Amino acid sequence: MSSHRYHAHIICVAHNQPRVLDSVAIFFQTRAFLTYDVATELPQAFLYGRQCIEACDYTIVVVGDSYGVGTAQNMGVSQMHLSYLSARAKLKPMLVLIKSHKAKGFEVSRQLQEFTHLIEQQATNIHYYDDTTNINQLLSKAYQDMTASCELRASWVKSVESNSNPLISKRTFQYANSGEPTLSTDTAGQSSKNPITKRSNNQNFEHLASDQHVDDDNNDMFQVLSLTESFVIKYSAHAYEGGNLTDITMTMEITWLEVLQALAKMPAASSSYGLQSCLNRLIAPRAEHDIKQKMPNVHAVARCQIAQNDLYHLQRSIIVANWIELTKSSVNASQQMWKLTSYAKKIYRANKS
Questions:
Q1: Handedness of CA 123, 341, 270, 223 (dihedral sign)
Q2: If 0-12 CB within 10 Å is exposed, 13-18 middle and 19+ buried, where does residue 63 land?
Q3: Neighbour count for residue 204 (Cβ, 10 Å)
Q4: Within 10 A of 102 (CB to CB), how many other CB atoms are there?
Q5: Tell me, what's the pLDDT at 170?
Q6: Are 321 and 240 in contact (CB under 8 A)?
């Protein structure tokens, strides 16, 4: 067994693609300690995944047949997706395995298609497989490509004095000429002399892995929403006219700037229900005006709500754009609290000024 080993975290849908995950476990037996994303039914699934990603040396992303279940059902963003965004934000090197779906009769979900497309736009070390692929050979090539491009050095080194006591090294991120993150290690008190480029701004790994988000200086790792771009949403409302209640369904055009301005008015931390209420309050004044224009005798409008499909797309967009994030106290689905990211606050301040 090697005296140098990595910590690799597997970003995946729990219990999906068992053949691939078993092959990964066997291939990395002497190369890395492995942790995995766990089932979202477990109360601390998201917190566990986030902590593993912060501690690991690199990640292995396995995209198979399923997008996974959302960590909060009404948010619709899976554990795999959130783990991927977390790894990107922490500048973790990635080895990506994506399953090709060529078999007739198999329908790929829209969420999985969009997630796969996002990875293909952002990641570099991507390898494809299907049910006939020799996974061990694929992993061998993918691993060589990643270690060559990232110049990784293992953070665990077996002690010379004792075979049972490992030395855990201090880790810092450095950037090669390509701009990709690499790791250097300090073992047994011996410090690395490799310089850090200006882009890293002399920040060590512990600072990058802290809650001071690297996205402020690395916005290209997230999808960018144009504040002036408008989109159409469908909504429903109750209109009261002469003592009668009428269910109304209409459409409205809003901009991402209006969404950001509404989010900026949220409390420091809001529940998923509070987030939805914030977005519904955004449309309420204009909805009332439009409904009364259409129905002049209406004396009151209530319960303005964005249609569930449009609300899902809106919420998912602002998560992927890194406008909102879960707070540290969000340990399970029933206690999830959302807050505006430092990146979103920066955009809001810049637009306001």
A1: negative
A2: buried
A3: 14
A4: 8
A5: 35
A6: no
- Encode pLDDT of 191-201 as tens digits: 333 332 333 33
Q: Residue 341: which residues within 8 A CB-CB, separation 6 or more?
A: 213, 215, 322, 323, 324, 325
Give the whole-angstrom CA distance, residue 97 versus residue 246: 52
Contact partners, residue 346, CB within 8 Å, separation at least 6: 216
What tens digit of pLDDT does each residue of 294-306 get?
999 888 888 899 9
Residue range 58-81: mean pLDDT, rounded: 80
Helix, strand, coil percentages (3-state) for the chain, rounded to 5, are 35, 25, 35
Within 13 Å of residue 40, how many CA atoms lie on the same side as its CB?
A: 23
On whether the CB atoms of residues 24 and 10 are closer than 8 A, the answer is yes
Tokens encoding 273: 């229900």
6 within 8 A of 31, measured Cβ to Cβ: yes
**φ/ψ of residue 254, rounded to 5:** -130, 165
Cα separation values, 223 from 94, 231, 320, Å? 18, 16, 6
* Residue 205 structure tokens: 């790994």
Distance between CA 94 and CA 9 in Å, rounded?
10
Q: How far apart are CA 242 and CA 297, in angstroms?
A: 8
Supply the mean pLDDT for the chain: 78
Sole residue written with tokens 């994506």: 98
Dist CA 37 CA 24 (whole Å): 14
CA distances for 222 relative to 109, 121, 272, 319, 344, angstroms: 22, 10, 22, 9, 12
C-beta separation of 303 from 237 below 8 A: yes
CA distance 46 to 38: 8
- Taken as a whole, the chain contains a residue count of 353
Q: Report the percent of the chain where pLDDT is more than 70.
A: 74
Higher pLDDT, residue 92 or 169: 92
Question: Residue 226, exposed/middle/buried by CB under 10 A (0-12, 13-18, 19+)?
Answer: exposed
CA 144, 150, 156, 157 torsion: positive or negative?
positive
